[in-house]
Design brief:
By secondary structure, the protein is an alpha/beta fold. 48% of the residues lie in helices and 14% in strands.
């Protein structure tokens, strides 16, 4: 009822090589790029940028095509450190997680970093300043990354000596000239990165675009304890892009299965419920690099409220009410007029009428949900407001808020 035909788009990942003292390439830093001509990482949301890099690298281009047998260095934000399950698809032996310099070492961040270390991931600290906010994370890191443009060779010498004494390796970036390389090598650096060796290049791939509706619906289903794996698999098979991406990831060399998985049902059971949830979340995050994650929570709240509204009034097809609530923000999420969005999605005439003309029982439920998003002062309530404040309606909305909050807290953070 809600499926839309998948589109095929180009995706891009920037990469810059990292070299050792013998000038051999040991890895590549993977960088967000919006196009094949972008010279820098222009993005609004760091979490979404990381999500796009991970999604594009794993499911669309492939780590083998990006880095071969070398290491992939991936920038991670606080959100990924406090929700380490979102990185579960990255093979620990093939990646280095670069903690960005503005990440504050709150207790949940420290716990997340420790968890990732326990899982075998290599941690690097990006643009490290011994007096900066990430200094307390130094003991967790295997690699410390210094920026030559802000750290003098003398400072490098003392800090690198400390790192070596404590069993860590050093990586210096922004090495732009032969003199820079000589200075950094003399200071004892283990690895180098900069324009002197190579500018970032861009690798392109082809991605089947995920259906946003299907992703949100899958996210809701995975977080509903009563949903069976068969029901989840059924939802997966309704979204071609999701199925393709999961099969690519499961069959990648990093998972070492030794056999080709061609069934989405087999793949889903191999991955498990928790990792499926992480992957759906990652794809949703990567879809909206300029949209707040709160939009997903609002859509889920509307959907659940409309469903409860139908159930309590014994109306037919509560799932259709859920669909209306979920679809109600798709125009905002996609920056496309609702009429154009609906034209691309096969929906019933009742759903179309509710969303475009605001008529019928479906529209009544949706309008109630929208009105409840604005606080009502009981002292100044109109008769219409009093209807909205009926205990039955308020209880349903509170239930919907709690449910949506539990879903987003477990996934989007």
């Amino acid at each position: 009822m809600l499926d839309e035909a998948p589109a095929v788009n180009n995706v891009f990942v920037g990469r810059q090589p990292l070299l050792d003292r013998a000038l051999r390439t040991v890895g590549y830093e993977l960088l967000f790029r919006a196009s094949n001509t972008a010279s820098s990482a222009a993005f609004v949301d760091g979490d979404a940028a990381t999500a796009q890099v991970v999604s594009n690298a794993l499911a669309d281009i492939g780590l083998d095509n990006l880095v071969g047998d070398k290491l992939a260095f991936v920038n991670v934000t606080s959100h990924f450190l406090t929700n380490p399950q979102l990185l579960a698809f990255l093979p620990p032996d093939r990646v280095v997680l670069e903690v960005l310099e503005h990440v504050r070492p709150e207790p949940d961040v420290i716990n997340g970093v420790q968890h990732l270390v326990d899982l075998g991931y290599t941690i690097a600290l990006d643009d490290f300043d011994p007096h900066g906010v990430t200094a307390p994370l130094r003991s967790f890191a295997a690699i410390i990354k210094y920026d030559l443009s802000v750290t003098s060779p003398n400072e490098l010498r003392s800090e690198i000596a400390r790192d070596h004494a404590e069993g860590r390796r050093s990586l210096v970036e922004r090495v732009e000239t032969a003199d820079d390389h000589a200075d950094v090598a003399e200071a004892g650096a283990d690895y180098f990165q900069g324009y002197f060796f190579a500018r970032p290049s861009i690798v392109a791939g082809t991605a089947v675009t995920s259906n946003t509706v299907a992703l949100i619906r899958l996210l809701a289903a995975i977080n509903e304890p009563r949903t069976t794996m068969k029901e989840i698999v059924d939802l997966l098979t309704q979204d071609v892009a999701m199925s393709v991406k999961i099969l690519r990831v499961v069959n990648s060399a990093g998972h070492g299965l030794g056999t080709c998985v061609t069934s989405i049902q087999h793949a889903a059971f191999l991955i498990g419920r928790s990792r499926l949830r992480s992957w759906a979340t990652l794809l949703i995050m990567s879809s909206f690099d300029n949209k707040p994650a709160a939009l997903v929570g609002m859509a889920l709240t509307r959907a659940k409220f409309c469903e409860l509204y139908a159930e309590r009034r014994r109306l037919d097809a509560p799932a259709t009410f859920f669909a209306v609530g979920m679809l109600s923000l798709l125009d905002v999420m996609t920056d496309t007029p609702m009429e154009s969005v609906i034209a691309q999605i096969p929906v019933t005439s009742e759903i179309r009428t509710a969303l475009l003309e605001r008529k019928g029982p479906l529209a009544e439920a949706l309008d109630l949900a929208i009105q409840l998003e604005q606080p009502i002062d009981p002292r100044n309530a109109t008769p219409a407001d009093c209807d909205i404040l009926h205990r039955d309606i308020v209880d349903s909305y509170r239930h919907a808020l709690r449910w949506a909050s539990s879903v987003t807290a477990a996934t989007l953070g």
